[in-house]
Amino acid sequence: MAGSVPAQEYQAAGVNKDDVLIPMISFAPFLSGTPAEKHSVAVLVTKAFQNSGFLYLKDHGIPPSAVSVIFKSSALFFARPQTEKDSLSWTTPQSNRGYVGHGREKLTLPEETGGIDELRVSIPDLKETMEIGRDGVDGLPNRWPDHLDDEGKEFKVVMQSFFEQCKSLHTQIMRAIAMGMNLPEHFFDEFVDVGDNNLRLLHYPPVSKAVFAQNPGQVRAGEHSDYGSITLLFQDNRGGLQVRSPKGTFVDVTPIADTIVVNAGDLLARWSNDTIKSTRHRVIEPPATVDHDDSDMYPARYSIAYFCNPNQNKFIDALPGTYGEQMHVPKKYDGIKAGDYLVQRLAATTTV
Ligand SMILES: O=C(O)CCC(=O)C(=O)O
Ligand SMILES: [Fe+2]
């Protein structure tokens, strides 16, 4: 494009190992740059989704102060007595809202779901989560702690506000993908405007090092891919997130301050006729290099995942330009309603 800014200017090293390239991309030029700058960033973002399925996003418009408020509020929530958390329990995959206690979810690969109950008992994920959905959906209330105390009221306010900020960023990133795929910039707007997204607060409690020594298969969160369009992941500085490389090794997605790890989910991969990759990832005990203390416990880890989805009622069928006789590329999947797809996937990993 004439006058366009070289793409490299917005891209710095993130992770580059074992054929996994996770670029660091500054989003500011997309949000407020010239049309040429915007286009350059859109191409970079789309390439990252097509290449490793992962990228680090900086200058994304969500202020660090807002993120730190959410982490604080999340830590306060998980510090509540177990009985209070249990009173806000997650109920069904359709609702996907509420508190999920330790060991209740076991993230797995699709081919493993037959043995989910046995797996959950033998090597449960070492985590607890709080799931927050779009507010105001008939019959599917969020499990807010606002009736408990002032801290619970505050929790509701800050989470609602963060939910909206992340929802806007989802729309912007989908606009970047649309441009990068030579679709009209606002192509996806009508697919994501409802905000059928899911804000998941994660707490991986401190865990004895012996647990990992005794169970070679033990992880903090099992290997899986995400289900929806994209995930916005905010991590603390503890580490442990890894993606699976094409070589089959696991590569650390090292925490980088003030960035969001953004990855594509299975539904976006399907929508793109697999031109975009939904890459498997997991959370292990942090890499040995970080772990030089003498304690026999690994400290806690907190993270926040905002799972973005197309509107539940939207029919997701292969995107224009991703298949066709002229390209000699067949359409790989039947169309499916977004809500049906997501409920099927959630039902496979969690017990009611
Ligand atoms: O905690 C993390 O860093 C990742 C969690 C995750 O991948 C998930 O919940 O889908
Ligand atoms: Fe994930």
Q: Can you offer a commentary on this structure?
A:
Belongs to the iron/ascorbate-dependent oxidoreductase family. It comes from Penicilliopsis zonata CBS 506.65. GO terms for molecular function: metal ion binding; oxidoreductase activity. Pfam families: 2OG-FeII_Oxy (PF03171), DIOX_N (PF14226). Keywords: Iron, Metal-binding, Oxidoreductase. With 352 residues, the protein is an alpha+beta fold. It has a single domain, classed as Sandwich (Jelly Rolls). It is built from ten helices and 17 strands. The strands form four sheets. Strands 1-2-3-12-9-15-6-5-4 form a nine-stranded mixed beta sheet. Strand 10 and strand 11 form a beta hairpin. The longest helix is centred in the middle third of the chain and has 31 residues. The mean pLDDT is 89.
Task: Write down the overall geometry.
Answer: globular
CATH topology: Jelly Rolls
Count the E strands. Answer: 17
What percentage of the residues does DSSP assign to strands (E)?
Answer: 15-25%
How widely separated are the two ends? Answer: 53 Å
Instruction: Write out the distinct hetero groups bound to the structure.
Output: 2-oxoglutaric acid, fe (ii) ion
Main beta-sheet strand count, sense and barrel state: 9 strands, mixed
**Relevant CATH superfamily:** B-lactam Antibiotic, Isopenicillin N Synthase, Chain
Roughly how many Å is the radius of gyration?
20 Å
Number of domains in the coordinates? 1
Considering DSSP H and I runs of 4 or more, what fraction of the residues is helical? 25-40%
Annotation field: number of helices: 10
Mean pLDDT comes to: 89
Determine and state the CATH class. Answer: Mainly Beta
Helix/strand/pairing class, anyone?
alpha+beta
Give the strand line-up of the largest sheet: 1-2-3-12-9-15-6-5-4
Second-tier CATH architecture:
Sandwich
Given as residue ranges, the uncertain stretches (5+ residues, pLDDT < 50) are: none
Helix and strand succession? EEHHEHHEHEHHEEHEEEEEHEEEEEH
Keywords: Iron, Metal-binding, Oxidoreductase
Family: Belongs to the iron/ascorbate-dependent oxidoreductase family.
InterPro entries: DIOX_N, IPNS-like_FE2OG_OXY, IPNS-like_sf, Iron_ascorbate_oxido_reductase, Oxoglu/Fe-dep_dioxygenase_dom
Organism: Penicilliopsis zonata CBS 506.65
